[in-house]
Amino acid sequence: MRTFVIVGRPNVGKSTLFNRLCGKEIALTYREPGVTRDPLSVRVRFGGKPAVLIDTGGVAFSREEKERPLTDLTLATLRQASDLLLVLDGRSGLTPLDWEIAGVLRKLGKKVWVIANKIDQEELDSLAGELSELGLGEPIPISAAHNRGIRPLREKLTGEDPVPASPRVPEEPARRLALLGRPNVGKSTLVNALIGQSRLLVAPEPGTTHDAIDIELEWRKKRFLLIDTAGLAPRHKQREGLASKTAGRSLHALARAHLVILVLDSHSGITRQDKKIAGWIQRIGRPCVIAWNKCDLLPQPTEGRRTEALLAKAVKSELPFLSFAPVVPLSARDGTNLDRLLETSLRVDEQAGQAVSTGALNRFFQKAQRRLPPPGSGGRRLKIYYAVNEAPRDSAAASPFRLRLFVNDPRLLVASYERFLEAQIRKEFPLLGRPVHWSWKKAEGSVPSEKRPLPSQRRKKFSS
């Protein structure tokens, strides 16, 4: 399978071209340079043939210490490519940095395609010819922003295929695992540790990751798609523009994931922003595993079981709406409990895909009511007639366990009884790490309740 890597100096339109060749907006684009930092890869089909397309950060070859990891990461990606797409700014012409990048690509011995971007009019095609001075072939004029020249570019990339196409073997779809958390909790470090290589840029300062990065992982013959997301900072710290776009990308990753790994910092504990992120996971309803990272930094290391019990207690106290999620203490830096995290995630995902029949549900609720009848109010008592599982059958592994219960009067429900039912239903059915969403509806044709209002609705009578 051919691998096309897009490369070039900052702000020449690499991510815009990446989105055009993918056919949808995957890479984050912004008017300021330096938005793309981690390599962003996706599987595409050019002319019916599978290929991998990778977008890279702008290569600046800066001598500054803080920019060196970005350059090294880009160069490592280039060495894995079969074809290199060198994107240049056709309007501004060649710069010294373009010449420097071309020299590096020439030494790699790869097939290089010179692409003159920002040529949005036919009269400007002559400007693209000036870029042939690099000696890497005839430039291809395009305008990624205006979709000009994209189809001819696709045809040229498809036309020269030195590798014979192999028969397509259907693969089991990869399970999408999104890693969410606030900035600087170690999400990118965790992904690098899971895949066993420095695939993502890691830095001590928060905000290193800007986009949602998809990375394939095969573990024990199971295919995963790890989605590393930008840290979700509090709203008051999100300035207009880039920060709000990165937050939107992270929430989009949450929506398309089959399972979410909420990464918490065991050293700093649970913050208000952690609670907000946990609330989004519960509301959207994705199965969840909680990864307590940086356990190696705990001030007083204790035995594994005791540490896990303390961390689970903290989740139950501070994040009660995610108390159903299994807790995995780990250290991405030391590689501790990484296999356990994947094992737990796989178990949660498998249980989320198991169906629960309507008959089993109704037998459960009848038994639960006999075990502990609902509390009464004003001489009346809640009665559950029947229940329906509304989780979509075709996407059960990416949805909450949705229950619609038909009762005599939903106003008679109290929160404590709903919590009791959820605790019992989790003992009865495979719901590890999966949210339960409740919906209570008055049953049509049920025995009419007493006409007198509930005690909370009665008006107080005053003597004259």
TrEMBL record:
Record keyword Transferase present: no
UniProt-annotated stretches for the region Disordered: 443-464
UniProt binding sites for GTP 2: 181-188, 228-232, 293-296
InterPro entries tied to this protein: AAA+_ATPase, G_ENGA, GTP-bd, GTPase_Der, KH_dom-like, KH_dom-like_a/b, P-loop_NTPase, Small_GTP-bd
Bias-annotated ranges (Basic and acidic residues): 443-453
GO biological process: ribosome biogenesis
Sequence positions that bind GTP 1: 8-15, 55-59, 117-120
Keyword set, alphabetical order: GTP-binding, Nucleotide-binding, Repeat, Ribosome biogenesis
Sequence ranges assigned to domain EngA-type G in this UniProt record: 175-353
One Pfam family hit: MMR_HSR1
Example GO molecular function: GTP binding
Family per similarity comment: Belongs to the TRAFAC class TrmE-Era-EngA-EngB-Septin-like GTPase superfamily. EngA (Der) GTPase family.
PANTHER family: GTPASE DER
Function recorded in the entry: GTPase that plays an essential role in the late steps of ribosome biogenesis.
Subunit structure: Associates with the 50S ribosomal subunit.
Record protein name field: GTPase Der
UniProt organism field: Methylacidimicrobium tartarophylax
Lineage of producing organism: Bacteria, Pseudomonadati, Verrucomicrobiota, Methylacidimicrobium
